[in-house]
Amino acid sequence: IQVPLNQKNIILIGFMGAGKTTIGQLLAEKLGREFLDADQEIERRHGMPVTEIFKSMGEPVFRQMEKEYLVELCRTSREKVVSLGGGSFMQDEIRNACLDSGIVYHLDLDWESWLKRFEALIDTRPILQSKSLEEVRALFDSRKLIYADNHYTVAVDQLSPEEIAENMARQIR
Ligand code: S3P
């Protein structure tokens, strides 16, 4: 089904810590749209924090939950602002569903800026806990290629979340 442009969801992707949730919330307020954070919705549905889902059930179970939630959301929702998890776009079905139903924005930051955020992320991001810094860097680089493919890119290194959301809102309105 083709969704008219003004009814499309606004979908935010990017690496952990890029600011998807913060910017998404601000952007939704500015556009007068409803905001949804995929990880928070999965936590609510399953009554468990993402860290706990990873720990007790493993990553494949989390990826399945993520796919079920997001494919369904894309099929049934219009005009929302949705922040995805950093790994969501690695699943073809999620990527295709999002591209059908939404306009996708990649929140992009460089490795040096990201490193400054690392400490604040480690406790709540199981993906980071099981990897060396070299492995995280490799993941950062390989995912960036997928995030950047055919989506709008918004640089988040230099501006505050408020400024970024305002710039995006102006472009979308
Ligand atoms: C993940 C990112 C997290 C969360 C989960 C896995 C990833 O979301 O979905 O811990 O694989 O990059 P954020 O990008 O919101 O941190």
UniProtKB/TrEMBL annotation:
E.C. number: 2.7.1.71
Subunit structure: Monomer.
Family classification: Belongs to the shikimate kinase family.
HAMAP family associated with the record: Shikimate_kinase
Domain of life of the organism encoding this protein: Bacteria
Localisation per UniProt entry: Cytoplasm
Protein name: Shikimate kinase
Annotated cofactor note: Binds 1 Mg(2+) ion per subunit.
Residue sites binding Mg(2+) per the record: 21
Cofactor: Mg(2+)
Organism of provenance: Saccharibacillus alkalitolerans
Keywords: Amino-acid biosynthesis, Aromatic amino acid biosynthesis, ATP-binding, Cytoplasm, Kinase, Magnesium, Metal-binding, Nucleotide-binding, Transferase
